[in-house]
Specification:
Layout: H1 3-31, E1 38-39, H2 44-53, E2 64-73, E3 76-84, E4 95-99, H3 105-122, H4 131-157, E5 169-178, H5 184-196, E6 200-204, E7 209-216, H6 217-227, E8 235-245, H7 248-254, E9 261-263, H8 282-291, H9 298-302
Helix pairs in contact: 1-2, 3-4, 5-6
């Protein structure tokens, strides 16, 4: 088999898997049909996958991800986030994460590990989609899963120093610098992860890429653990700021980006223009920093203190 034939076979396998993802999502939409039970943040991803399968476009710009909002706790809905890699179901496992305001982050990570273990041990036939099987298992066993992971958490704490009844809350702001950020999949992962973790801040794609997230330290560090393994030419935490606070109200007062997490471009172009490959306007970026009381960070990011010292964009 020559390289051209091999490439055609790989493309055919990829399209077959993507079609199975779309078919499974359609089935799930019919089952979880009550308002808000199954949601997709960006429905254009469905068009992108369909266009690739039908040969209308040549590249995939995104992955299929969606979330369930299910009443798994008394008077409390629980989010189940599903992210499907392109080679699911045959060659890659889905990322399935449980999120709830009443479940601590470390316990959420244990629940994620339990889900991965279930897939590895119990899902024998992986040529066909199995998200529905996993969601059904979570629904049937959620109470037991919570008890089990609570027990695991207590075991991990055995032998450690006593934990104070009211652990202090640590607020953290991370300034992350990357050589560049262009991938739409990566950009969507950054936005989605930050919002899922209730972080505020911004992401500036392009070259260079700058990301700022702020919130509870357990969540900012979870954000960093999530995006760091993505393929980067270079990425690093340039600067981090921490402060211990007494409660959520004090932490909210420290946030500089009250509107939540957004992607910002800082390009001096018309709104209809393609801004992804345009250089960042340093003057717009400096004004943005000053507006959000972050002017002090320009020295840490770029090594200069005044906007007049900035390189011309």
């Amino acid at each position: 088999m020559n390289s051209g034939d091999e490439e055609d076979v790989q493309k055919s396998l990829l399209k077959n898997g993507l079609q199975k993802q779309l078919d499974e999502f359609q089935m799930l939409s019919a089952i979880f049909c009550n308002a808000g039970e199954l949601q997709v943040d960006d429905y254009s991803c469905l068009d992108n996958l369909s266009g690739y399968i039908n040969g209308e476009i040549d590249r995939l710009d995104t992955k299929l991800d969606y979330r369930f909002d299910l009443p798994l706790l008394p008077d409390q809905k629980v989010q189940i986030l599903v992210e499907l890699p392109h080679l699911y179901p045959a060659l890659e496992m889905p990322r399935i994460v449980i999120r709830s305001s009443v479940i601590p982050r470390d316990q959420e990570r244990m629940l994620t590990s339990s889900i991965e273990q279930y897939i590895e041990q119990e899902v024998v036939e992986r040529d066909e989609p199995y998200v529905y099987q996993v969601i059904g298992w979570i629904q049937d066993n959620f109470t037991e899963l919570l008890l089990r992971t609570t027990g695991d958490k207590k075991e991990q704490q055995t032998g450690k120093r006593p934990v104070a009844e009211h652990e202090p809350i640590v607020f953290e702001r991370l300034w992350i610098y990357s050589h560049h950020l262009k991938s739409k999949t990566k950009r969507q992962t950054i936005i989605k992860t930050a919002r899922d973790l209730k972080l505020s801040g911004f992401s500036r794609p392009g070259k260079p890429a700058i990301i700022c997230v702020e919130g509870q330290q357990t969540d900012t560090q979870e954000f960093w653990r999530t995006i760091k393994p993505l393929k980067w030419q270079k990425i690093q935490i340039k600067f981090n700021e921490t402060e211990t606070v007494g409660d959520e109200k004090e932490m909210a007062a420290l946030r500089h980006f009250e509107a939540g997490f957004r992607e910002e471009l800082f390009c001096e172009m018309d709104e209809d223009s393609d801004t992804e490959d345009q250089p960042m306007s340093m003057s717009l970026f400096m004004k943005f920093l000053e507006k959000h009381s972050c002017g002090y960070i320009k020295k840490e990011l770029f090594g200069f203190q005044n906007a007049n010292d900035a390189p011309i964009s």
